[in-house]
Amino acid sequence: LMLILTCVFFRDPTADDTSLINDINFQYPDLEFDCLSNPFVKCSPKPDAFNPCEDLLGFSFLRCLTWIITVFAVAGNLAVLVILLIGHHKLTVSRFLMCNLAFADLCMGLYLILIAFMDYHSRHEYYNHATDWQTGPGCGIAGFLTVFASELSVYTLTVISLERWHTITNAMHVNKRLRMHHVTAIMVGGWAFSLLVALLPLVGVSSYSKVSICLPMDINTLGAQVYVVAVLILNVVAFLVVCYCYIGIYLSVHNPEHSTRRGDTKIAKRMAVLIFTDFLCMAPISFFA
């Protein structure tokens, strides 16, 4: 109200008035006040694809798709964890790695639940919730979950590929196979790495509050730029390692002089479908980032 009165009664502001108006920032510039044409009024941030005005998820099909993927991600990965951990089968290296992958993808499902719920809660009036959401604990938790889940997932997929490649190329040397304690130590390193990467934006390296979907897209400082570029490069390197492993598996399987166990080859084919579909989901994100 004070700003409107200022615009009506002080069309020719003094230096003090100009300073006062300069200090006023609108959350969104869609209020259509006459005074918004005043050059001294700054409106920020401007609505865009990552900072929407009315809806967090701007399209109906995107909203429906998010809920569908959320239900499948949570239910499917919970089922995998229950079957692998509670089942009567021995926890082998492959099953242990699948448990880690299922947990990572379950965390991604929890992230989608937070985004979908916030979209439902703020529907048609996201501008009233944007500041509280993006600067509050909700966005921080969502950002932590998505970065932790994506990095742990990429790390686990890479370890699965390396384990399959190592097993098949050394099929005749049983003593060279990876044991459970080896893989456990490797995955402890993966968890530590994923937790570190997810925690850095919470302590000032980049930020989860830059965009409405809580991704670490703040690159205003050198540290944030190094962080984002390093994460993207590591993901690309991981994909190249996976490709190399499966090319090696393919050559080993089709080499008549190389003996492989039928079960190992069957598992490798199933893993290949899982891994490349997972990376297919992540490729567009890395490309546009």
From TrEMBL:
This is Luteinizing hormone receptor. The keyword tRNA-binding does not apply. GO terms for cellular component: plasma membrane. GO terms for biological process: adenylate cyclase-activating G protein-coupled receptor signaling pathway; hormone-mediated signaling pathway; male gonad development; ovarian follicle development; ovulation cycle process; phospholipase C-activating G protein-coupled receptor signaling pathway. Keywords: Cell membrane, Disulfide bond, G-protein coupled receptor, Leucine-rich repeat, Membrane, Receptor, Repeat, Transducer, Transmembrane, Transmembrane helix. It comes from Haplochromis burtoni (Burton's mouthbrooder). Residues 76-289 form the G-protein coupled receptors family 1 profile domain. SUPFAM superfamilies: Family A G protein-coupled receptor-like (SSF81321).
